[in-house]
Design brief:
Elements: E1 5-6, E2 9-10, H1 46-60, H2 62-68, E3 81-86, H3 93-103, E4 108-111, H4 113-119, H5 124-138, E5 141-144, H6 148-151, H7 161-179, E6 183-188, H8 196-201, E7 204-207, H9 213-223, H10 234-244, H11 250-271, H12 279-295, H13 306-316
Length: 320
């Protein structure tokens, strides 16, 4: 039995269509077929994998819980599944959201800051409604990246018209989350910026950790695809790379591979020999990524806090 089935049937997409009179936003908010599945394409820590498995269990057994057991009588909003993926950059939050859609056999609709800046101008509240309507009509999993911009704390001291619009945007989002009966996923590196009203409405808060030693070894193994010629034995190479990359995210491990492979080719060209990836190439790449993290990356205090969150929201509304 597949994870996305209960008994003999596939998890049903929401039946409710768009509100009467809602615009056709199929082109503006397009869903697509997901490219990944959990388990097959995503390497997660045990704690993160367990939390997602519990969420999948709820989705598979929604009818049992809310109809057969009548829990819907006291939890009428529980048919929706709202998740928050939070944790350091590069830990697989976006990949996991798409893979969750793939596991559920749902179309995937992703909205990031780039899309929001171009689409959520002026009539922001109406456009949020349109995004949810489009996801509902397509039966899609709706994914919001950098969600702290949307779910940030509402402004208590309203001094400008834009402040009213920020509050209206967030109030509309709260309403849409309450009436949405599908699956929505928010992802952020800054979960502490969320307004309490949003935090309490999210059913599953899933923390994405930096990979531990075992997860790093599995990540290196996945990146070291069969077609890459090796000059050193594979298993000792994986163990050494996993140990050297302590504190790295999956994204940084992939960056190491991007740096190491040209090194192997460059050395082969210089010496007129067949190319082969060696531990020395990977060690050099790991050192470069670590140095960049120490010398180039912003320090935590220069990350996106409330002030930067407000600035991004104003830009999103077209008033910066």
């Amino acid at each position: 039995m597949n994870e996305n089935t209960t008994g003999g049937g596939r998890l049903a997409a929401p039946e409710r269509g768009p509100r009467p009179g809602a615009p056709d936003d199929g082109a503006r908010f397009a869903a697509r077929a997901p490219r990944f599945r959990l388990g097959a394409d995503v390497i997660l820590s045990d704690a993160t994998a367990l939390r997602l498995a519990e969420c999948l269990t709820k989705l598979r057994h929604r009818k049992t819980i809310y109809v057969d057991w009548d829990f819907g009588a006291v939890d009428p909003l529980g048919l929706s599944t709202i998740l928050n993926f939070y944790g350091p950059p590069g830990t697989g939050k976006t990949l996991a959201a798409e893979a969750l859609a793939g596991t559920l056999d749902l179309p995937f609709m992703s909205l990031g800051i780039a899309e929001l800046e171009s689409k959520f101008m002026g009539e922001t509240a109406k456009n949020i409604q349109a995004a949810f309507d489009a996801a509902r009509a397509a039966g899609a999993l709706l994914f919001f990246d950098e969600a702290d911009t949307l779910l940030g704390k509402r402004l208590s001291s309203v001094t400008q018209g834009v402040d009213n619009e920020v509050n209206a945007m967030r109030s509309t989002l709260l309403i849409e989350l309450e009436r949405f009966d599908g699956v929505a996923v928010f992802a952020t590196n800054f979960a502490k910026n969320y307004d309490e009203a949003f935090r309490s409405r999210i059913g599953y808060h899933v923390h994405f950790d930096l990979p531990d030693l075992d997860a790093r070894q599995r990540l290196w193994s996945r990146m070291l695809v069969a077609g890459i010629p090796l000059r050193d034995p594979r298993e000792p190479l994986l163990a050494r790379c996993a140990a050297l990359s302590d504190g790295f995210s999956g994204r940084e491990i992939r960056t190491c591979m991007r740096l190491a492979l040209p090194k192997a080719l460059h050395e082969a060209e210089r010496h007129g020999q067949p190319p082969g990836l060696a531990l020395a190439h990977l060690e050099a790449a790991i050192g470069e990524v670590r140095k960049a993290g120490d010398e180039v990356a912003s320090s935590p205090e220069h990350g996106r806090g409330p002030a930067a969150d407000s600035a991004t929201t104003r830009r999103l509304l077209g008033v910066d």
